[in-house]
């Protein structure tokens, strides 16, 4: 079981930002990645629809013999993680949520911005996060429709992306945010562009590395960490395997074979 793979999924390529962190921290682990590009964006879909998609992918990873599951998607986590844990009580499942706690600790201006999908920002889980960790700071939330679709093209410096991102950042800067949470796994890929747009004093916070550490803890507790195994990463997409194959070198820094996920 230690040498079994870990299943990781997202609505698209965003979860690759998390997969990179997992691979860096746990290089001996074999990874399976599903990008549900045929149903993107989750951020504008109903929680019920997202729960159905997550159940399909979780069943697939079970059939593949995955020893753990990572929801590398904030929107999927708020909609479906409770459901999945109920369905598979013995399976280590790691979800992710916007890093409100570290952002509240990091801000000096007392104003924190959150870039995330509409679905994440409207969820009860996000409201509970704010109640719990953000009572002493002002939080400005910014839904970002359209951003994910532009990132999915793999062109991280397009004029359209530049323009849309700037329109989402400006209200946060105007409100005095000195700390910005990247609350969607697609957004870490915007760091180079954000670096050009933002004053260097602005702190950007994402949760990919923390998720990788949480996965490591869960596996270690169960004595499930791989030992001395030549790691292998496999990719599937419900969108176009050709397209994902083409942009993998940009987002994953390596090429890879991508198979069709037709479920
Ligand atoms: N990557 C996803 C997240 O972390 C959502 C993208 C989408 O809207 O599909 O929230």
From TrEMBL:
Substrate binds at residues 10-11, 42-43, 74-75, 185-186. Pathway: Cell wall biogenesis; peptidoglycan biosynthesis. Keywords: Cell shape, Cell wall biogenesis/degradation, Isomerase, Peptidoglycan synthesis. One of its GO terms (biological process) is cell wall organization. The active site is at 73 (proton donor/acceptor), 184 (proton donor/acceptor). It comes from the Bacteria. It is an enzyme of class 5 (isomerase). GO terms for molecular function: glutamate racemase activity. It catalyses: L-glutamate = D-glutamate. Provides the (R)-glutamate required for cell wall biosynthesis. Belongs to the aspartate/glutamate racemases family. HAMAP family: Glu_racemase (MF_00258). This is Glutamate racemase. It comes from Pseudomonas helleri. The gene is murI.
